[in-house]
Amino acid sequence: MSIQIGNYHAEGPFGNVSGLLARSGVYVILGRSAQSNWIVVDIGESGNIQDRVSCHDRAPAWQRQGHAQLAVAAIYVDERNRMSIERELRLKFNPPCGVV
User: Fold this and answer.
1) Considering the chain, what is the average pLDDT of its residues?
2) Percent of the chain with pLDDT over 90
3) First to last CA, the chain
4) What is the three-class DSSP state of 8?
5) How much is the pLDDT for 88?
6) pTM of the model
7) Residue 99: pLDDT above 80?
8) CATH code, 2-92
9) What is the per-residue pLDDT for 98?
Protein backbone atom coordinates (compact mmCIF):
# COMPACT_ATOMS: atom_id res chain seq x y z
CA MET A 1 0.00 0.00 0.00
CA SER A 2 1.28 3.48 -0.78
CA ILE A 3 0.17 7.09 -0.64
CA GLN A 4 1.36 10.20 -2.47
CA ILE A 5 2.88 12.79 -0.11
CA GLY A 6 3.88 15.84 -2.12
CA ASN A 7 6.15 14.55 -4.89
CA TYR A 8 6.95 11.30 -3.06
CA HIS A 9 5.43 7.83 -2.93
CA ALA A 10 5.28 6.81 0.73
CA GLU A 11 4.63 3.38 2.20
CA GLY A 12 1.37 3.31 4.15
CA PRO A 13 -0.62 4.77 5.66
CA PHE A 14 -0.32 2.36 8.58
CA GLY A 15 -2.56 2.46 11.64
CA ASN A 16 0.28 1.28 13.89
CA VAL A 17 4.07 1.06 13.89
CA SER A 18 4.17 -2.65 13.05
CA GLY A 19 3.85 -1.70 9.37
CA LEU A 20 6.98 0.47 9.55
CA LEU A 21 10.52 -0.74 8.89
CA ALA A 22 13.45 0.04 11.18
CA ARG A 23 15.10 2.08 8.41
CA SER A 24 16.24 5.62 7.70
CA GLY A 25 13.75 8.03 6.22
CA VAL A 26 10.96 10.55 6.61
CA TYR A 27 7.75 9.80 8.49
CA VAL A 28 4.48 11.61 7.91
CA ILE A 29 1.76 11.50 10.56
CA LEU A 30 -1.66 11.69 8.93
CA GLY A 31 -5.09 12.32 10.38
CA ARG A 32 -8.64 12.18 9.12
CA SER A 33 -12.21 12.30 10.23
CA ALA A 34 -14.76 9.73 9.13
CA GLN A 35 -14.71 9.32 5.33
CA SER A 36 -12.50 12.38 4.76
CA ASN A 37 -9.13 12.57 3.03
CA TRP A 38 -5.88 12.27 4.95
CA ILE A 39 -4.26 15.52 6.06
CA VAL A 40 -0.69 16.00 7.27
CA VAL A 41 -0.42 16.38 11.05
CA ASP A 42 3.36 16.11 11.52
CA ILE A 43 6.52 15.36 9.55
CA GLY A 44 9.90 14.21 10.81
CA GLU A 45 13.01 12.25 9.93
CA SER A 46 14.96 9.53 11.68
CA GLY A 47 17.64 6.90 11.23
CA ASN A 48 15.06 4.39 12.48
CA ILE A 49 11.50 5.40 11.63
CA GLN A 50 9.87 2.53 13.52
CA ASP A 51 11.61 3.38 16.81
CA ARG A 52 11.07 7.12 16.44
CA VAL A 53 7.34 6.93 15.80
CA SER A 54 6.72 4.24 18.45
CA CYS A 55 7.99 6.46 21.29
CA HIS A 56 7.60 9.97 19.86
CA ASP A 57 7.48 12.89 22.30
CA ARG A 58 4.90 14.69 20.11
CA ALA A 59 2.41 11.79 20.05
CA PRO A 60 0.12 13.53 22.58
CA ALA A 61 -0.01 16.58 20.27
CA TRP A 62 -1.07 14.32 17.39
CA GLN A 63 -3.96 13.05 19.50
CA ARG A 64 -5.02 16.59 20.44
CA GLN A 65 -5.63 17.48 16.79
CA GLY A 66 -9.02 15.78 17.12
CA HIS A 67 -8.88 13.36 14.19
CA ALA A 68 -10.98 10.21 14.34
CA GLN A 69 -8.08 8.25 12.85
CA LEU A 70 -4.30 8.69 12.89
CA ALA A 71 -1.82 6.84 10.68
CA VAL A 72 1.79 7.05 9.59
CA ALA A 73 3.41 6.88 6.15
CA ALA A 74 7.12 6.41 5.49
CA ILE A 75 9.51 7.53 2.77
CA TYR A 76 12.62 5.37 3.14
CA VAL A 77 15.77 7.28 2.15
CA ASP A 78 19.34 7.79 3.40
CA GLU A 79 20.33 10.46 5.94
CA ARG A 80 21.36 13.14 3.45
CA ASN A 81 18.12 12.88 1.48
CA ARG A 82 15.79 12.48 4.45
CA MET A 83 16.75 15.84 5.92
CA SER A 84 16.13 17.72 2.66
CA ILE A 85 12.84 15.86 2.02
CA GLU A 86 11.65 16.66 5.54
CA ARG A 87 12.36 20.38 5.02
CA GLU A 88 10.65 20.37 1.63
CA LEU A 89 7.51 18.63 2.94
CA ARG A 90 7.31 20.83 6.06
CA LEU A 91 7.37 23.93 3.83
CA LYS A 92 4.71 22.47 1.52
CA PHE A 93 2.28 21.19 4.19
CA ASN A 94 3.04 23.41 7.23
CA PRO A 95 1.92 20.69 9.68
CA PRO A 96 0.31 21.83 12.95
CA CYS A 97 2.65 19.68 15.08
CA GLY A 98 6.40 20.10 15.35
CA VAL A 99 8.77 22.84 14.32
CA VAL A 100 10.97 23.45 11.30
Assistant:
1) 94
2) 91
3) 28
4) strand
5) 97
6) 0.94
7) no
8) 3.40.1440
9) 79
CB within 8 Å of 89: residues ≥ 6 apart: 5, 6, 8, 26, 28, 40, 43
Per the CB < 8 A criterion, the answer to whether 31 and 39 are in contact is yes
49: helix, coil or strand? helix
Domain ranges of the chain: 2-92
C-beta contacts of 54-57 below 8 A and 24+ residues apart: 54/17
Provide CB contacts within 8 A for 73, sequence distance 6+: 3, 5, 10, 11, 12, 13, 14, 27, 28, 30
* Average of per-residue pLDDT across 18-27: 97
The strands making up 25-32's β-sheet, listed across from edge to edge, are 2-5, 8-14, 69-76, 25-32, 39-46
